[in-house]
Amino acid sequence: MSHLSPSSCPFPCSNHPKRLHRSKKFREHYNQAQLFYNSMSEHEKMHIMNALSFELDHCDDPIVYKRMVERIADIDLDLAKGVAEMVGADIPEVAGRPNHGKKSKGLSQEDFPPENLTIATRMVAILIADGYDAVAYNAIKAALAAQGALPFTIAPRRTPIYAAGESKGSGKGVAPDHNLEGQRSTMYDAIFIPGGADSIATLRKNGRALHYVREAFGHLKAIGATGEAVKFVQDACSLPGVEFSESNNVVDSYGVVTAAQTEASTFKDAINLVKNAKDFSSAFSYAISQHKNYQRELDGLSSMVAY
């Protein structure tokens, strides 16, 4: 291509070389960061602080994490204070620059709730052992499947598990999908444990079963328990503020749904996904539909469980 003469140049030419320059707004690095952080929900802000603290904890050079805290203070003072305390930097007393306080929709995950509550495609682990309560097991498994959820039976072994009153070898046992050693609670969105004295006595002696409950609680997942399983879950997650059922009344506390005594009205075929539902099936389904119970995290309960 031949060189363009000044007269054919498509834009005004001068005697000086033409350069591309960024506008002044490209020199401003904080307004968008503040906008993003301000728009987060409380639990998302906590996740950001924990993530920054985790990464900077791997840095051994004080000058690096101290300067990073100074930069974070240019975005949000409280965030900087929290990170500084965790990583050992000097805790800032004043912000590097004022936070404009603006927020924007569409930045937080909380801005995208589902149009309709549903538990479709949610994977739910049902923990049983020999002597489990067949009524509770069958009712919840059917209720979950009817809503499009995916129930999986988990047991100490993969050979048939027999309900209370069933004799081994009768051919009536349930074949589990997995054993406790083969699957972690992290593979599922929620867990349910039906009662049955012998079943719970067996699960109490199994460290994997105990870990299932604690890990699910720590990961803020819905937990359901009926009958004798209520005390099992209570012992696994005995924390201040978490309430458990002591009668046929259904209790939903921090996404832990329990019914100590079950009767015909405890399990209903018609599921109503509403908060404070009176029947167990609906209350547990509602807890699953919430995805996770972030209030556990905000109240410091999830960090009190070893998992």
TrEMBL record:
<dbReference type="GO" id="GO:0042744">
    <property type="term" value="P:hydrogen peroxide catabolic process"/>
</dbReference>
<dbReference type="GO" id="GO:0004096">
    <property type="term" value="F:catalase activity"/>
</dbReference>
<feature type="domain" description="Catalase immune-responsive">
    <location>
        <begin position="23"/>
        <end position="87"/>
    </location>
</feature>
<dbReference type="GO" id="GO:0005829">
    <property type="term" value="C:cytosol"/>
</dbReference>
<dbReference type="GO" id="GO:0046872">
    <property type="term" value="F:metal ion binding"/>
</dbReference>
<keyword id="KW-0349">Heme</keyword>
<keyword id="KW-0408">Iron</keyword>
<dbReference type="InterPro" id="IPR029062">
    <property type="entry name" value="Class_I_gatase-like"/>
</dbReference>
<dbReference type="InterPro" id="IPR010582">
    <property type="entry name" value="Catalase_immune_responsive"/>
</dbReference>
<keyword id="KW-0560">Oxidoreductase</keyword>
<dbReference type="InterPro" id="IPR043156">
    <property type="entry name" value="Catalase_clade2_helical"/>
</dbReference>
<dbReference type="GO" id="GO:0020037">
    <property type="term" value="F:heme binding"/>
</dbReference>
<dbReference type="InterPro" id="IPR024712">
    <property type="entry name" value="Catalase_clade2"/>
</dbReference>
<dbReference type="InterPro" id="IPR041399">
    <property type="entry name" value="Catalase_large_C"/>
</dbReference>
<protein>
    <recommendedName>
        <fullName>catalase</fullName>
        <ecNumber>1.11.1.6</ecNumber>
    </recommendedName>
</protein>
<dbReference type="InterPro" id="IPR020835">
    <property type="entry name" value="Catalase_sf"/>
</dbReference>
<feature type="domain" description="Large catalase C-terminal">
    <location>
        <begin position="121"/>
        <end position="273"/>
    </location>
</feature>
<dbReference type="GO" id="GO:0006979">
    <property type="term" value="P:response to oxidative stress"/>
</dbReference>
<dbReference type="Pfam" id="PF18011">
    <property type="entry name" value="Catalase_C"/>
</dbReference>
<keyword id="KW-0376">Hydrogen peroxide</keyword>
<comment type="similarity">
    <text>Belongs to the catalase family.</text>
</comment>
<dbReference type="Pfam" id="PF06628">
    <property type="entry name" value="Catalase-rel"/>
</dbReference>
<keyword id="KW-0479">Metal-binding</keyword>
<keyword id="KW-0575">Peroxidase</keyword>
